[in-house]
Design brief:
It is found in: Late endosome membrane; Lysosome membrane. GO terms for molecular function: calcium channel activity; intracellularly phosphatidylinositol-3,5-bisphosphate-gated monatomic cation channel activity; ligand-gated sodium channel activity; voltage-gated channel activity. It is a single chain. This protein is mainly α. Helices cover about 65% and strands about 0% of the residues. The protein has 33 helices and four strands. The strands form two sheets. The protein has a two-stranded antiparallel ribbon. It is globular, with a radius of gyration of 33 Å. The N terminus and C terminus are likely disordered.
């Protein structure tokens, strides 16, 4: 089958249609009456409406389609119900910030933190119970709509019920202990509610799971590499009689755990070149060991892991989009089949067909974007035939794969020749370029003034020049806004997001400037408004000026390569939601686990002797948790735990956390941090790189094939880009067809 050939729209399996009363054989004029030609037309219309809405949202059509179930189905997927469900998930996840230990403190620094407010027992538990009730309604409706037979095939729903049962049991235990228990299992399970509610996150998790075998082979190579070099290091850096020459052994390779930790951190280059310096200062030949370890581990094996993940995810976006298109076309064909079963459909027709009136009735009741609905109705009215074939029916709904192209209001038509010249001059793109140049001059002038005044005492500064140039630039921005409104008209001016941003920024600057003059007077030599009151007003004027840099975003579409990069980033943001959700789930679970393991472990120096190993005679050892004052990084509350995990994920100085928590809690705490590093910094970051490469290469290939794309093509969705590849995907999934 050729990729570009037009194929017959998708048809659900005949057994599926027969089981749901959506099929009637056409073996003659009288067969319609035999197979239920008198079926209720309203039911078929409602079924078609639901199937069309399923196609719009890329949902499965494998659900109950009787009249009561259809009402329940549309109610469940209504905006109100979905908003309530999403709000419930947000609330139950956000409870971690106010539950004991509460994050409602100004600082997480153990030296300055005041006792936090903790809610009374029963407050957050009542909110949890309400959330559980919503989830029970959610799982009950889902189970009913798909039926028991499909339920036993759906592992996610079964896991959903199991999670609710465990959470409710733990909730009861918590109340029985009057909320004083230290371990709450249900907190770790909360991210599952977010995970099961997103089909894209499930697909992403499935793709990650399929990648694990290949990743494990690289992890095994890394483990072998780390173990071999650890043995070599313990043989090279042994204890000698000269204590001055044993710094490498004392600090980094004293025993097997310390040796493994030192080389593992070196694999991320976080302690390079510190780990090498004691041995290198004694003999330069020792540098060969550390360089060889870094080259093999960091440059080869870690990048090999990136290559493997990218290879596995190279077709992830394509397969995901094709799968979505498959569901969309299946839903559209299902709608066609039920509409072709209406009484008004000619039974003598050689092939199934749908009347335009029936489709128009469905479109009027279906929940869909108004632009798509109007476009389909226009195409339907332009169609000369009264009966639509399957191919024509499918063709109409290709509008779903297109984004609305915004039409800007027309510019005003002036009769005066002078006004027409003014409109041409101030509506020309060069006038916008002049505004960008003025904004650049504004930024440069502010930076120059700030650099010149950086080393001056407050009493030596003269803000006259800065105040004067602020007046000039703000007046120009106001004039530019008014002239553009004159040339384009107010409605057309406001239809452009860049103009709305510029206008809002100009109004804010003007209001702040007027307030400054009212409070501090007009600029004059020796003008120092910061001495006359709070700094906030004057500082806000200078900070808002810096926002003018965003004016340069308007020139991006005029630069082809920059436009390619920016569109890649925008598409990445759209496709990154599933990956970000997975990271949020992992962050949440690890933060709760960290609170259970390390809550209260870190205390100030005056309250413990655990830090004695870091200082001698009152002098803290350089590079330690205490000397670097990392006290706010702890697991004493949920917010602090999230920040600590972020700092470890960045891997800059993460060996400080390994050392500190092994001293304050247990040496086994290193397992927790290494597991977090593997999941977040190694696996997730490489997944992010793979997705970025996939988006950029796809757009680069399209750019090479066609040097220029029309505005309409830029407005099309990702699904339409892959539509020509759909037949290949359908051939691979031929098991869906009768």
């Amino acid at each position: 089958m050729e990729a570009g050939a037009e194929v017959e729209p998708l048809l659900p399996p005949r057994r599926w249609r027969v089981g749901r009363g959506l099929w009637r054989e056409r073996d003659g004029a009288g067969s319609a009456g035999e197979d239920g030609a008198g079926a209720d037309n309203d039911l078929h219309i409602n079924q078609a409406i639901v199937f069309i809405e399923d196609a719009i949202q890329y949902r499965s059509i494998n659900h109950r389609v009787d009249s009561k179930s259809l009402w329940l189905y549309r109610w469940y997927y209504s905006r109100t119900c979905q908003w309530i469900l999403n709000l419930t998930i947000t609330v139950i996840l956000a409870l971690a910030f106010i539950e004991e230990p509460s994050s409602l403190t100004v600082t997480s620094d153990v030296r300055y933190r005041l006792p936090s407010w903790n809610p009374p027992c029963g407050l957050t538990e009542s909110m949890e119970l309400l959330c559980f009730l919503v989830f029970m309604v959610d799982v009950s409706v889902k189970t009913y709509l798909i039926g028991w037979k499909e339920f036993w095939k759906n592992k996610w729903l079964m896991a959903y019920i199991l999670t609710l049962i465990v959470s409710l049991a733990d909730w009861i235990v918590s109340l029985s202990f009057f909320c004083k228990e230290s371990v709450r299992i249900r907190r770790i399970l909360r991210p599952f509610f977010l995970l099961q509610n997103s089909s894209m996150m499930k697909k992403t998790l499935k793709s990650i799971n399929s990648t694990l075998p290949e990743m494990m082979s690289v992890f095994l190579l890394l483990a072998v590499h780390l173990a071999l070099f650890t043995m070599f290091a313990m043989l090279l850096f042994v204890r000698t009689k000269d204590n001055q020459q044993d710094k490498e052994w004392v600090v980094y390779f004293r025993n097997l755990p310390d040796s493994l930790t030192s080389l593992l951190v070196l694999l991320t280059t976080a302690n390079n070149p510190d780990v090498m310096m004691p041995a290198y200062s004694k003999n330069r030949a020792y540098s060969i060991f550390f360089i060889l370890f870094t080259v093999l581990g960091n440059l080869f094996l870690m990048n090999l892991l990136t290559a493997i993940i990218y290879n596995q995810f190279r077709g992830y976006l394509l397969k995901s989009v094709q799968s979505s298109l498959f569901r969309r076309r299946l839903g559209i064909r299902a709608a066609f089949e039920v509409l072709s079963s209406l009484k008004e459909t000619p039974a003598s027709a050689q092939q199934s067909c749908v009347s335009g009136g029936a489709l128009l009735q469905v479109l009027q009741k279906a929940e869909m974007d108004s632009h798509c609905k109007q476009a389909i109705m226009r195409s339907l009215k332009m169609c000369s035939c009264d009966q639509l074939s399957a191919a024509q029916f499918q063709k109409l709904f290709e509008e779903l794969d297109k984004d609305a192209i915004k039409q800007h209001p027309p510019s005003p038509e002036y009769q005066s020749h002078f006004m027409q010249k003014m409109q041409f001059a101030f509506g020309h793109p060069y006038f916008g370029y002049l505004g960008n140049v003025i904004a650049l001059a504004n930024i440069i002038s502010i930076c120059v003034v700030l650099v010149m005044d950086a080393d001056k005492q407050p009493s030596e500064r003269d803000d006259f020049f800065l105040g004067a140039i602020n007046c000039f630039f703000i007046l120009y921005y106001l004039l530019e806004m008014l002239l553009k409104i004159l040339a384009m008209g107010l409605k057309r001016y406001l239809s452009y997001p860049s103009n709305r941003f510029d206008g809002l920024l100009t109004v804010i600057l003007l209001i702040l400037e007027i307030a400054t003059f009212a409070v501090y007077g007009f600029p004059h030599p020796g003008w120092r408004p910061e001495f006359m009151g709070l700094l906030s007003l004057w500082d806000m004027v200078r900070l808002v000026n810096m926002l003018i840099v965003f004016r340069f975003l308007r020139i991006i579409p005029n630069m082809k390569f920059m436009s390619l990069v920016v569109t890649t980033l925008l598409d990445l943001v759209k496709n990154l939601r599933a990956f970000a959700g997975i990271l949020l789930v992992v962050f949440y679970a690890f933060a709760i686990t960290g609170i259970m393991l390390f809550k209260g472990a870190v205390v100030s120096l005056g309250d413990t002797s655990a830090a004695n190993s870091t200082h001698d005679n009152g002098t803290l050892q350089c590079g330690t948790y205490e000397q670097l004052e990392y006290w706010p990084n702890n697991f004493d509350d949920f917010a602090a735990a999230l920040v600590t995990l972020w700092d470890v994920m960045v891997v800059n100085n993460w060996q400080v956390f390994l050392d500190a928590f092994s001293r304050y809690s247990s040496p086994w705490s290193k397992i927790y941090f290494v597991a977090w590093w593997l999941i977040s910094s190694v696996i997730w970051v490489n997944l992010f790189v793979a997705l970025l490469l996939e988006n950029f290469i796809h757009k680069w290939d399209r750019r090479c094939q066609r040097e220029s794309l029309s505005d309409i093509e830029y407005q099309r969705t990702v699904e339409l880009m892959f539509r020509k590849l759909l037949p290949c995907f359908l051939w691979e999934n031929s098991c869906w067809f009768p």
